[in-house]
Amino acid sequence: MPDAAAETILRPARAADVPAMAAIVADSAELGLMLPKSHATLYEKLRNYVVAEDPHTGEIVGLCGLSIIWADLGEVVSLAVTPAARGRGLGARLVDAVLADADGLGIRRVMSLTYEQRFFERLGFSVVDRQKLPMKVWAECVACPKKHACDEIAMIRVNASIPPAVGSPAPGVGVPGLSAPVVTARLTRDGSVMVGG
């Protein structure tokens, strides 16, 4: 019997995919696995996403995106698959597609904020101290209900075959292995971001 996950088509997201993408993300958000994404946000960031399409039904059964944070730092975002497609390796294929995109763009480091440490470790990611990540990483945190008690695990994958980006701060600034500028920031009780101190 053919492997359904292996038959699934991975392709760049299209505008017509957004309602299905939003539904898949909403399902995972209801389980507390990620933040929801509005249709407007998905349309705005559409070029960042790859989707998994069932070749028999044309149904979108998964998605994953690459957000570019800095010259040498990207982030795996919105990795989600439908309940029926879970546990068959489709998530790994989606992340691999996003990592290939990052490699093609010359982005040396790709991070993820996740609850699935073992999954990302199998894909070459390592745990890093999330408090030392660049402030831009935390832009969505202001809207998160867990902003004052975040329990996500920060992980990073470094492709050593890609040279450090020209003009980036030297490796070792902030988190070892990260070269995006680091700004100390924290969320205040009212949800605003305080930079410094």
From TrEMBL:
It is an enzyme of class 2 (transferase). Its EC number is 2.3.1.-. Keywords: Acyltransferase, Transferase. Residues 8-140 form the N-acetyltransferase domain. InterPro entries: Acyl_CoA_acyltransferase (IPR016181), Bact_Acetyltransf (IPR050832), GNAT_dom (IPR000182). PANTHER family: AMINOALKYLPHOSPHONATE N-ACETYLTRANSFERASE-RELATED-RELATED (PTHR43877). It comes from Phycisphaera mikurensis (strain NBRC 102666 / KCTC 22515 / FYK2301M01). The keyword Lipoprotein does not apply. This is Putative acetyltransferase. Pfam families: Acetyltransf_1. The keyword Acyltransferase applies. One of its GO terms (molecular function) is acyltransferase activity, transferring groups other than amino-acyl groups. SUPFAM superfamilies: Acyl-CoA N-acyltransferases (Nat). Gene3D superfamilies: 3.40.630.30.
